[in-house]
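Example with several molecule types.
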Amino acid sequence: MNIIRRPRRLRTNAAVRALVEETTVSVNDLILPVFLVEGTRVKKEVASMPGIYRHSLDNLLEEIAYCRDLGIKTFDIFPGLAEEKKDRFATESHRPGNMYLEAIHAVKSRFPDVVVMTDVAMDPYSSDGHDGLVENGEILNDETLEILGKMALAQAQVGADILGPSDMMDGRVGYLREILDDNGFTNVAIMSYTAKYASSLYSPFRDALESAPKFGDKKTYQMNPANIKEAMIEAELDYAEGADYLMVKPAMLYLDIIKMLNDNFALPIAAYNISGEYSLIKAGAQNGWIDGQKVMLETLTSIKRAGAKIILTYFAKEFAELQRK
Ligand SMILES: NCc1[nH]cc(CCC(=O)O)c1CC(=O)O
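Resulting structure tokens for the full complex:
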């Protein structure tokens, strides 16, 4: 038998496999999204996200301290608000001293080396549960920008490092960049949710924050999962408007989009391995149908292989714990 090229030679043992391994996920690549709620000593598991909790600030600080010791350096904080704090205009989102702004300030004061990423979107604060201002059942674009601008500035003022506009309004990256620069926050970065699709996999996140839309869906602002071309347009716009990072969301079902943006833009590409993607894997593992840890590793590796340098993932802590062993 004369088989000249035998690819299996590079798979013979673990050392050789490690030698030729092209993609390695590191804790340096990961951002852990965390959920913040009002109160003290609150730690409530999200029913649809086993192992993920809503924390009051005191517990969140402990959680961050623990994860920081594991090597996780960046945290994306999301607020869950009581219904009575919400209104049409998301007024609470930029009220000085609100729970969210206090938390950003507290995290940055306690852990100056930690990178705090924030969420810039109306939905956690909106009585309509939408990412924009609603009028007669429509989501207004330009009026929403003004609210996002106030929210972003308030976050920058308390020490946010990276702002994450997750709303999908047109023109918001340029609008926020200008407000930040005009107020002296030239070093506050923007990680734009560039290609955010109207996915059915956000529902566990909306459970966590009780932020589901009160009517309709988000299809007039989030992208159609069937489309590739508009991701290019969104990325061109965000690049031109000054985004520092481009994000694709969700991740697992959108690896082609991650690859396309990475092939076409020199900015770091991030991917958000979202709540429903996490829940699917956890559910499969809890049923004993798949090996949760192996599927987690394969998932993160695949997202990175597709071209994401950065992965926002609820698995960050579990991954870091596994690495430490
Ligand atoms: N601004 C909304 C927002 N910011 C982050 C997520 C989802 C994150 C996840 O599912 O993990 C969503 C959900 C949505 O668009 O309804």
